[in-house]
């Protein structure tokens, strides 16, 4: 049986991966009076006087909403809220397994950005954090940005989780290659949610304590080639790249972009890299090809053509760039610190924490996604950075 059929059979058998479980049992009238009326009125009055008491007296203090509109689910595209629900259930399961956070999947039957923003604002009193998931670009940028003043962390994992784990793998790869991050040139293929977040993280602007310095240059490509000043078809998000990437204003195709660069980051589609492209890169090229299910280049081909280190988004190859290494620990640390938002400093600290969880080799630049100790280390790093 293949993995898809096996997964369908499992979900059919268990009817969803989550359930609600009571922390207390109701066996006597006194139990009922404590948990519900009349005793619960005392708790309500306490919170009415001070809303922050909800963190200590209700589920809010350990709850995250996993919010999606089903518009960009995995590699499946715009499949809608019902079809997105199994993924959001899975995300909630990972929150619990890795960070003991009670996460609730909320799949919304709207793809209107303003409506999504209004809904999230309205439900925010119930949660200590909001995890945005599988919302298509460029709408995801606007939605996340307009929710930053909720007073609780709002984090679009497809953007920042990917970027954080990618940076962790890149830091260890550069260490093995004997290269300094300030000396390398990076090409990012894919200018959607993940590609944009990666570029912004590598930019490293505005960090007060020199945790990470910017790379020498970043070149971003989309489906039509290099994002450069001559391009007339750039949306507002892509125009922002012009302010900090492609310093020499190189134009052309991916083949032109990748020449004499040190790191290739793929968040696009499969089978884009060829032998000539990899061999045109600088010595000890690092290939982080994260398209799923087919990466931009298969690891065995990349190695054969001269790649020093290869990472993908797949679990059946070494060096899997997997968001589960980031988001549980980030939310655990932010919630425990009662942070109002996820800062850039937190993201950088999280990346360094992930990188520090392994003694890197060419086949282990980041920890296994099954290593649950990573979330603890990330949470500690995030708490320190608040």
| CATH-derived architecture of the largest domain | 3-Layer(aba) Sandwich
Name the CATH class of the largest domain: Alpha Beta
Distance between the termini: 47 Å
Give the low-pLDDT segments: 205-209
The string of secondary-structure elements, in order, is: HHHHEHEHEHEHEHEEHHEHEHEHHH
The CATH topology annotation of the largest domain reads as Rossmann fold
Strand order of the largest sheet: 7-6-5-8-9-10
Q: Radius of gyration, Cα only, in angstroms? A: 22 Å
**CATH homologous superfamily identity of the largest domain:** NAD(P)-binding Rossmann-like Domain
Largest sheet: 6 strands, mixed
Number of individual domains = 2
DSSP E strands, number: 10
Number of helices, counting only DSSP H or I runs of 4 residues or more: 16
Question: What helical percentage do the residues reach?
Answer: 40-55%
Shape: elongated
Explain what you see.
This protein has 16 helices and ten strands. The chain has helices at residues 3-14, 29-35, 40-49, 54-57, 81-99, 113-123, 139-145, 157-177, 193-203, 236-241, 254-258, 275-279, 299-304, 327-336, 344-355, 373-385, and strands at 63-68, 102-107, 129-132, 154-156, 185-189, 217-222, 225-226, 263-266, 286-289, 309-312. It is an alpha/beta fold and 386 residues long. The protein folds into two domains: 12-152, Malic enzyme, N-terminal domain (Rossmann fold, 3-Layer(aba) Sandwich), CATH 3.40.50; 157-386, Rossmann fold, CATH 3.40.50.720. It is elongated. A six-stranded mixed sheet has the order 7-6-5-8-9-10.
């Amino acid at each position: 049986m293949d993995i898809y059929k096996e997964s369908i059979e499992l979900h059919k058998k268990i009817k969803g991966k989550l359930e609600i479980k009571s922390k207390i049992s109701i066996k006597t009238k006194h139990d009922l009076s404590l948990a519900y009326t009349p005793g619960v009125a005392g708790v309500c009055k306490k919170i009415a006087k001070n809303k922050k008491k909800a963190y200590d007296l209700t589920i809010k203090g350990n709850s995250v909403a996993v919010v999606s509109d089903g518009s960009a689910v995995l590699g499946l595209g715009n499949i809608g809220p019902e079809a997105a629900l199994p993924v959001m259930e899975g995300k909630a399961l990972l929150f619990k397994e890795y960070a003991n956070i009670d996460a609730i999947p909320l799949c919304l039957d709207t793809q209107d950005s303003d409506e999504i923003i209004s809904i999230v604002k309205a439900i925010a009193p119930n949660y200590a954090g909001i995890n945005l998931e599988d919302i298509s670009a460029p709408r995801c940028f606007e939605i996340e940005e307009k929710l930053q003043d909720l007073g609780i962390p709002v984090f679009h994992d497809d953007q920042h989780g990917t970027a954080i784990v990618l940076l962790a793998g890149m830091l260890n790869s550069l260490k093995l290659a004997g290269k300094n991050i300030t000396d390398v040139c990076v090409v990012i293929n894919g200018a959607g949610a993940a590609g944009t977040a990666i570029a912004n993280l590598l930019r490293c602007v505005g960090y007060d304590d020199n945790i990470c310095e910017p790379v020498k240059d970043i070149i971003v490509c989309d489906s039509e080639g290099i994002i450069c000043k001559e391009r007339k078809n750039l949306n507002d998000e892509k125009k922002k790249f012009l302010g900090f990437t492609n310093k020499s204003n190189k134009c052309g195709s991916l083949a032109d972009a990748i020449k004499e660069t040190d790191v290739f980051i793929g968040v696009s589609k499969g089978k884009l890299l060829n032998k000539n492209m990899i061999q045109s890169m600088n010595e000890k090229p690092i290939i982080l090809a994260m398209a799923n299910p087919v990466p931009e280049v298969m690891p065995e081909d990349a190695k054969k053509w001269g790649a020093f280190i290869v990472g993908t988004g797949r679990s059946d190859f070494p060096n899997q760039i997997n968001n589960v290494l980031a988001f549980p620990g980030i939310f655990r640390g932010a919630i425990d610190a009662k942070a109002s938002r996820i800062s850039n400093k937190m993201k950088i600290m999280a990346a360094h924490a992930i990188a520090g969880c392994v003694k890197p080799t060419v086949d282990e630049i980041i920890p296994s996604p099954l290593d649950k100790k990573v979330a603890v280390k990330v949470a500690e790093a995030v708490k320190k950075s608040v």
